[in-house]
């Protein structure tokens, strides 16, 4: 196994310290993902209001990006993650005990903020600790364990929900957050788990944003489209299946197959980016996602939709760790965590905007039109990434 630094860390050695807590944390959030809407409707919310409450999770991630960068820069990764857990636990208890949809909405929004803080802390750590020639594999593995946790969470939560009702999912998440925080405390400390500079040496957030505005305008715009494409596929695939008259079970199987292919590709995607360069994964991934959306109007049944779901899974799998890797590549040494907070906010804006784009175009025109619009966004993302992503992989630290 290749070493990550002169101290002898390897990807395998990072597993317990870095990847295991993140996998547990993601499993908890995966457990609540299917039930937020059900909690809202159970409190009397209309379907539209329930969808809005669920969307506040993404809104919280967007709102939490910049503050999380400041916290990581000032207090370090470990304290930021423990702070996220300390805020997440009462938010989960509030979700569990809420008797008013407004309290549920506030709690879900807070959960989004905690997710942003946790994710940024891990991203900032790997950016600092991992040698550039292994960076994509480290980042794609982090993204991969997150996807595995999100995939496994609903299955772990289902038996508890069966016994305790919807509140059981929040209990599973609370246990997962507690275990993840405990792992952060008891596992050996990792390098760079500290504030990166003294108070006088830290650039202000406004300074970091101003100095890196050209990168955020160009590559940040492309990353926004990447986030939109990823989120759009999660929305449009089940909507198309419902439009074809497929049963929920069949749609679930197709969605699961697509997700399974996605998860299998996270390490090969990172290896490809490390060996050949970021463009070799970025451009094909967005092109495949765009092509899959363009082919949706041709899917006339379960078989066709399965093929398109597989294509989406391959495209999304190739992009595993892409946003984090490129962000690490272009991040400045001074104010790095603050820059990464802005970088992740670009992606989170896309994640929130993708489903909204589909809804708006579908309402104004039709679902096939929405698929074609997203396909166009995929072509544009591939073009922008091909133009602005550096052609060669980094071979040394900045």
Structure description:
The protein is globular and about 60 Å long. It has 2 domains: 1-200, Growth Hormone, Chain: A, CATH 1.20.1250.20; 203-398, Growth Hormone, Chain: A (Up-down Bundle), CATH 1.20.1250. The chain is mainly α and 398 residues long. Mean pLDDT is 86; it is low at 1-8. It has helices at 11-32, 36-42, 47-75, 77-97, 101-129, 135-164, 167-186, 205-211, 213-243, 248-264, 266-276, 279-295, 302-318, 322-330, 336-364, 367-388.
The tally of structural domains comes to 2
Strands, count: 0
| Oligomerization state | single chain
Strand percentage lies at under 5%
- Most strands sheet: none
- The percent range for helix content is over 70%
Average pLDDT taken over every residue: 86
CATH topology of the largest domain: Growth Hormone, Chain: A
Q: How far do the termini sit from each other? A: 24 Å
Low-confidence stretches: 1-8
Order of helices and strands: HHHHHHHHHHHHHHHH
> Helical region count?
16
> Which CATH first-tier class of the largest domain would you pick?
Mainly Alpha
Radius of gyration: 20 Å
In terms of structural class, how would the helical and strand content be classed? mainly alpha
The CATH superfamily of the largest domain is MFS general substrate transporter like domains
- Tell me the CATH architecture of the largest domain: Up-down Bundle
- The best one-word shape is globular
Topology:
Blueprint: H1 11-32, H2 36-42, H3 47-75, H4 77-97, H5 101-129, H6 135-164, H7 167-186, H8 205-211, H9 213-243, H10 248-264, H11 266-276, H12 279-295, H13 302-318, H14 322-330, H15 336-364, H16 367-388
Helix pairs in contact: 1-6, 1-7, 2-3, 3-4, 3-5, 3-15, 4-5, 4-7, 5-6, 5-15, 6-7, 6-11, 6-14, 9-10, 9-12, 9-13, 9-15, 9-16, 10-13, 12-13, 12-16, 14-15, 15-16
């Amino acid at each position: 196994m290749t070493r990550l630094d002169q101290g002898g860390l390897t990807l395998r050695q990072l597993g317990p310290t870095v990847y295991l807590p993140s996998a547990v944390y993601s499993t908890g959030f995966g457990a609540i993902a299917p039930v937020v809407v059900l909690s809202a409707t159970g409190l009397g919310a209309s379907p539209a209001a329930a969808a809005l409450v669920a969307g506040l999770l993404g809104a919280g991630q967007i709102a939490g990006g910049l503050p999380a960068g400041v916290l990581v820069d000032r207090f370090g990764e470990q304290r930021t993650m423990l702070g996220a857990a300390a805020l997440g636990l009462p938010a989960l208890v509030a979700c569990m005990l809420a008797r008013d949809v407004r309290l549920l909405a506030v709690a879900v929004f807070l959960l989004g903020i905690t997710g942003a803080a946790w994710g940024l802390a891990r991203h900032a750590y790997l950016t600092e600790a991992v040698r550039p020639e292994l960076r994509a594999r480290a980042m794609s593995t982090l993204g991969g364990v997150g996807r595995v946790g999100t995939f496994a969470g609903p299955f772990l939560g289902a038996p508890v929900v069966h016994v305790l009702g919807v509140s059981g999912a929040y209990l599973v998440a609370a246990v997962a957050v507690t275990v993840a925080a405990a792992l952060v405390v008891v596992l050996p400390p990792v390098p760079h788990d500290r504030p990166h500079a003294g108070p006088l040496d830290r650039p202000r957030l406004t300074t970091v944003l101003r100095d890196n505005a050209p990168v955020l305008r160009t590559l940040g715009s492309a990353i926004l489209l990447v986030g939109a494409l990823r989120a759009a596929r999660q929305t449009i695939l089940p909507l198309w299946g419902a439009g074809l008259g497929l049963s929920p079970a069949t749609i679930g199987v197709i969605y699961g197959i697509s997700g399974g292919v996605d998860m299998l590709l996270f390490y090969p995607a990172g290896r490809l980016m490390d060996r050949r360069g970021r463009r070799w994964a970025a451009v094909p991934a967005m092109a495949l996602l765009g092509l899959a959306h363009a082919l949706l109007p041709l899917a006339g049944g379960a078989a066709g939709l399965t093929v398109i779901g597989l294509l989406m899974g391959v495209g999304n799998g190739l992009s595993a760790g892409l946003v984090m890797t490129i962000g690490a590549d272009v991040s400045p040494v001074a104010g790095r965590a603050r820059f990464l907070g802005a970088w992740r906010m670009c992606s989170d804006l896309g994640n929130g905007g993708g489903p909204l784009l589909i809804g708006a175009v579908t309402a104004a025109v039709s679902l096939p039109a929405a698929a074609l619009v997203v396909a166009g966004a995929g072509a544009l993302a591939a073009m922008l990434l091909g133009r602005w992503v550096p052609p060669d992989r980094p071979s040394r630290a900045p």
